[in-house]
Amino acid sequence: MAEKNTNFNLPKEVLFYGRTLPEYLKMFDLDLSIWKDGKVLDCPAGPASFVEEARQRGLDVVGCDPAYTDELQLIINKGNLDIDETIKFSSQYLQLFSQKFYVSLEDMRQYAKLALRSFVDSYIMGKQQKYYIQASLPNLPFSNQSFDLVLSGNFLFIYSDLSNKNLQSFDYQFHKKAVLELLRVCKKEVRIFPVPCIQGELHKYVKNLLADLETQELVVELTPVEYEVFKGGNLMLRLIKRINC
Description:
Blueprint lengths: L20 H7 L11 E4 L7 H7 L3 E6 L6 H19 L14 H24 L3 E3 L12 E7 L18 H13 L1 E8 L3 E2 L2 E2 L1 H9 L5 E7 L10 E7 L4
Parallel strand pairs: 1-2, 1-4, 2-3, 4-5
Antiparallel strand pairs: 5-9, 6-7, 8-9
């Protein structure tokens, strides 16, 4: 009998926080009808309800995350704890809080609670049917070009050694390898949100990455989207593979 994987495998600094389908549609400027005949990856997916909600609408969506342990109660506990941590952190920056999507922090909390409940309800079946897969960047267990669209939200550039000395493993080389891995498993397009930009200056790793990607056969776009938690934090990175590359 295989030993159960109960290792949460997530640095404590990285919050396990999920979002709903309506949030994803705005974060990634998504039109689901365009991808209804394709395959979509959410990485890292966290305790979001996007995978389940999109699958209910007929899309072929897979979510992967290092925190997809076999111990469901551990996931529930971590999810609830990190909702509280996220709201507590956000409350320190109320002067920057945008009401573009959420009318209040309590509204934001309720979206997160809804996402977590839906995710938990679908988790056991999702693990059995292999649309929830435990996996970590920058090494994913998927073949080249397995997915038409790859989404990566609220992880890359948000968590790095530049912002937290305890995240030394999330240096620039990690970010570069992670993005190249997302591109490897992607057939058409990768979308990453958010792209940190402070006082008009892109995050250092974003600028380095854009320079390194110049040799790739890609169309690169920085696109403002309609989702925003803090004012100015609404940039999405689109990496579109050129046809026949």
